[in-house]
């Protein structure tokens, strides 16, 4: 996630100084998004592992993966504003720049929902496994 952010910001702006400024300015949003994404990956991996053990088949973490992707896109979409003036989309660039904080908050919210959903699925799988063992 962090590498994706670094690539998007540095390529879009063409400047390491801009990347450093963005990290300094938005560190608390970035930390929340990266921590949320890491938590989702950890929970989804454990859910997948337990499901395979219980059912002998691979399972995809569709909800978590979809939510992670949506959160990441919402978070980083405002960096496309750096490219839009080049392709003649100045109004879109202005919109994304003006609403960058709401985009990041949406990303954090989506991450939180995905963590809750994945944790509940993991807890229900754990409870079902405990009930079968009895």
Taken in chain order, the helices and strands follow as HHHHH
Q: Globular, elongated, flat, extended or rod-shaped: what is the shape?
A: elongated
Q: What percentage of residues falls in helices of 4 or more residues?
A: over 70%
| Main beta sheet strand tally, sense and closure | none
User: Could you tell me the mean pLDDT?
Assistant: 74
Short description:
The chain is mostly helical and 134 residues long. 82% of the residues lie in helices and 0% in strands.
Salient structural properties:
134 residues; mainly alpha; 5 helices
Report on this structure.
The chain is elongated, with a radius of gyration of 18 Å. The protein has helices at 2-13, 16-55, 62-76, 90-98, 100-133. The chain contains five helices and no strands. The chain is mostly helical and 134 residues long. The chain has one domain (2-133).
SSE order and pairing:
Layout: H1 2-13, H2 16-55, H3 62-76, H4 90-98, H5 100-133
